[in-house]
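Need tokens for this chain, all 127 residues.
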Amino acid sequence: MKMKFTKIYVNNQDKALTFYTEVLGFLKKADFLVGSFRWLTVVSPEEPDGTELLLEPNDNPASKISQSALFQQGIPATAFAVSDIQHEYERLKQLGVVWTQEPIQMGSVIIAIFDDTCGNFIQLVQV
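Here are the structure tokens for all 127 residues:
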């Protein structure tokens, strides 16, 4: 068994695709209809055949409540690993990304948190 997909709920798939590709630098992997829904995934350019992040449309009442509650409490929906968090922080800041937590040492890791513009906070982690 292996992990091939993980998902994040987004309130607008087109806006999410733009943010995740043009700002974060991920690559679009899949984009097709599954019934009346769009299956839209992105991957890391460092691992184009690695785990795909599904940008899941947030049209289920339960997922909307969960996403909203996490956002209101400032809890990240997911985390991405980076090798140089200070570099990514500065790069993304220059692109207008809004940060709720600048890079901070937390034990053996450094973390930072930003708003993905689609209803989520995302955590960057440097181990």
